[in-house]
Amino acid sequence: MKSSHTLPPGRAKLVAVIRSAGDVIRIADASATLKVSRTDAAKTLSRWAKQGWLRRVGSGAYVAVSLDSLASDQVLDDPWVLVPTLFSPGYIGGRTAAEHWDLTEQLFRDIVVLTAQRVRRRVQQHHGALFALKHIGQEKIFGTKAIWRGRTRIAVSDVHRTIVDIVDDPALGGGIQHVADCLSAYLVRPDRNDATLISYAARLENGAIFKRLGFLAERSPVGATLTEPCRARLTKGNAKLDPTLKGSRLITRWKLIVPETWAVGQQHD
Question: What fold does the segment set 2-69 form as a domain?
Answer without folding.
Answer: Arc Repressor Mutant, subunit A (1.10.10)
